[in-house]
Amino acid sequence: MHARTTHLQADRTKIDEGIALVRDETIPAVTAMTGCVGMSLLVDRESGQCIATTAWESQDAMAASAEQVRPLRDKAQQVLGASTSDVDQWEVSVVHRDHATPQGACARVTWVSGAPGGSERVVDVYKMAILPRLEELEGFCSASLMTNPETGRAVGTVTFESREHMERSRDKTTSIREAAVKEMGAKVDRVAEMEVAQAHLHVPEMA
Fold this sequence. Notes:
It is a single chain. By secondary structure, the protein is an alpha+beta fold. It folds into 2 domains: 1-82, Alpha-Beta Plaits (2-Layer Sandwich), CATH 3.30.70.100; 91-197, Alpha-Beta Plaits (2-Layer Sandwich). Helix content is 36%, strand content 38%. It has helices at 15-31, 59-64, 66-79, 119-135, 163-168, 170-184, and strands at residues 2-9, 36-43, 49-56, 84-97, 106-113, 140-148, 153-160, 187-201. Strands 1-3-2-8-5-7-6-4 form an 8-stranded antiparallel beta barrel. Helix 1 packs antiparallel against helix 3 and helix 4 packs antiparallel against helix 6. The two termini are 13 Å apart. It comes from Nocardioides iriomotensis. This is ABM domain-containing protein.
């Protein structure tokens, strides 16, 4: 499984308009493409940051969709009044769901960087040391890890039932993260807390 993430720095006043576009036009168009297994959208209403993720059955399917998704991305950028748009490609390394994502769910996203070629170590630590502790957090819904073996970068996402659950987990998650990156031999680049605006990723369990 592979995934493409698009980071948009949007006009905060246009977030709801952008969510409606993704829900009504972008998701139906993308999920109709060959090899697509879903799409999600995370938003931060305070900063205007938006992250759209599309998942694909294979790297070939993801590559074949590149030109098809470009006009969809351009329209979303226009509707959101986005000043920047960055696209990354990943391998989907871990997916675990405890239960479905409810309305009002929020997610904590953590970007880390390590040595190129060190993704196997990162995945092992995530599965053995991080995931079991995340599952114990109150309000836990799901967790995923995406990696880029060539660059050594990885991004982990933990979804909670509500913003309140996410905020209450902050101290415990920080402790888990600090211990894990030492074991991974990686460093934390950034952490973001975001609203789950659309949750239609249908990647199978990979834990």
